[in-house]
Every structure is written in structure tokens, then in C-alpha cells.
Amino acid sequence: VACCLSLSGLYSGPGWISVPLRRQQLGGRSVQHTSEYFGEVTVGTPPQSFLVVFDTGSGNLLLPQEDCKDEACRRHTRFNAHNSNSTLQLVDADNNTQVGSDGSRDVVTITFGTGEMSGVYIRDRICIAESMCCEADFVAAIDESDEPFGAVPFDGILGLSMPQLGEGAAFSVVDRLVKEGAISKFIFGVFFGYDGEESEITFGKFRRERMVGSLVWAPVTVAGYWQVQMEDVVVDGETQNLCPNKCQVAVDTGTSQLAGPENIVDRLTDKMDVAADCSNVHALPTLGLLVAGRSLTLSPQDYVARSGNICTLAIMPLDVPPPRGPLFIMGDPFLKKYYTVYDQTRARVGFALARHSQPPRDSFLQRSRKEDRAR
């Protein structure tokens, strides 16, 4: 099996490559927190191209296959195993046994919050750029629920978690790329740009030119997940004593949301006091997460969602029990503010302010100030 990504605008060097990501806002929700970033991969011989979300919160490559007749599958590009001369149909996730003449094989069901997919195991050539290929296993969907898969602009999901979250030893595409020498080490950096900016994911190293200042490193606390310990919540530079027994924070490139424990989100909702009519948005405090002794700070522009003339605190309540929780999940709004680096070799996550070439377009903070002056 080999994995391949083929895109224009690639940056690369010995043992590393940067892949450009596309951004598309999903309709039906607040524009401020609905972007999805995705890129292209190819699978098979000859290569078949797919758009995928690069998801640090999951561990497998998931693609719809030709046999899936659900509407969610038919709206997207489906993998056709019959058109690839390097495909191996696998009985299960744990060994190299190929499907026999009786067709008997395992079927796995994977849930995604509001929906689920069921699929079978396949091995084939997968590439990140034409020169970055490996042998890896993936899950080919035979059923997909309409929510969320029917409405998304991408075909599948490429899991970038640590290998422990994969269905088996050969399911981590990045790990397979390292073992086959395509990239030098299991490390990658993520830059999410604003409208009009390039976005990218870099495999094999991180790019200092995407950062302002140096990285703050924090050790991974739960094997498999890119999550680290968080000491407290910080509001306008003051700790709030909301995590007396320590919280956790997971960095998730596969979600457009911010989320946190319900009891803490409720207290923050009262503390931040975001006016529903957006009248106080420009006067709101900063909100930070205390990680490795440093406050990773968000401005109101990052943590307030605006839909028309209605503003809300854009942190969803989500309760995750120990040992993973209490857990905050940082998606797109955080990832636009911070350049993040994921280092499997040393089991750590790095954070640095992202170096943007321009501010976000049509900032709702600027709109709010104009509206205040007009009152």
C-alpha cells in the first residue's frame, strides 16, 4: 500500500513536504466558526484523487467506496478498488489475510458525533504528493449517514492522531510514511490562514516562518490523542481557578468548534457576559488557556460567534470523563490564532502565535465599533 497527495503549490525538501489546504465555509451556521480546511490525497494504482480533512482527532483514513450507494457517498468521489491494480481486500484490521472466495470479512462501524459510517478494510497505495508514498491500510465506507457526511465538501477523513488510535498497526499514514522513508520523522505542523491566505500542513518538520516567536511545548498526557494538561482558564490575564484538579486540552484540526466542560462553560458564559445584541463585543476581555505555564490567549474575535446581529460565546458544552477529561477541544478559531506542531517521537505538542500576512477580513469587531458609532 502507498499513500499519495498530489497538489499544486507544494513546498518540499529532503524528508519533508508542505501540503496546501483549501478552505470552505459550511452554510447554515455562524460564519465566524464554520470553516473546514481540507486537501487532496491519492489512493491506488493508477492514483485516484480525494479531498480529505486532515484530522488530528482520529486515527484512520476513511473514504467512501464504489459499493456504497447511500446518498452521502454518491455525492462524493468514491474509491473504486476494481480500477486499482495495487488493492488488497483485507479480512480484518490485525493481519495481512486477504478476503477469500466466500467474501467473509469484518465490517467496522465508526461514530462521528451526529452520525456514523460502516466500512471494510483495504490496503493500497496512498500518497502525500507524488514523491511521498507508503503502504497503508484504510477503511472504505459501505454505508454513510447523511449527517454529517452528506453536506460536507470533502470526500473523506485522514486521521493524524498517534498510531494508537488506528484500527491496526498499518493504519497510521504518517507512521507508514516514516517507516518507508518518505518523510524523516513523525512530526507535522499546521497553519490555518484567514480568507485570502494560504493554509498548509507540513509533514516531516515544522516551518518557523509560519510562527511569531518560539514554540511552547507541552507533553502529551493520554496515549494516542494530541492532548496536553491545562492548568487553568485565564480571563484578562487573571487565573480563574476553574481547573483545581487540572483540565486537559485537545487540539483538533477536524472540528470547526471550540468546546469545554459544561460546568466551566456555564461559568464562563456568566463571566464573559457576551451581549446578545453584540453591543459589548469590542469591550470583552481576552480568554486564555494556561498550558505549560503560558497563557494561550484568544481575543473576542476568536471566541465570539456572530450570526447577523446576534452574538454568543462560541464554546460548546462537552463533558468528557477522566482520564481524558475534563477536556477542552480547540478547533478552527484556536488553530487560526496559533501555529501548532505535533511531535510523535517526543510525545509533545507545540504552540506558537501564527504569523499571518493579513488580519481577518470584515472583522465583526470592526463592524461592532461602526454600529456603536451609528447609534
UniProtKB/TrEMBL annotation:
Record-annotated disulphide pairs: C68-C73, C278-C311
Positions annotated as active site in the UniProt record: D55, D252
Molecular function per GO: aspartic-type endopeptidase activity
Keyword field contains Disulfide bond: yes
UniProt xrefs under Gene3D superfamilies: Acid Proteases (2.40.70.10)
Tagged with keyword Nucleotide-binding: no
Pfam families: Asp
Coiled coil: none
InterPro entries: Aspartic_peptidase_A1, PEPTIDASE_A1, Peptidase_aspartic_dom_sf
Domain Peptidase A1 intervals: 37-352
Biological process according to GO: protein processing
Keywords: Aspartyl protease, Disulfide bond, Hydrolase, Protease
Family: Belongs to the peptidase A1 family.
Protein name as catalogued: Peptidase A1 domain-containing protein
Organism of derivation: Noctiluca scintillans (Sea sparkle)
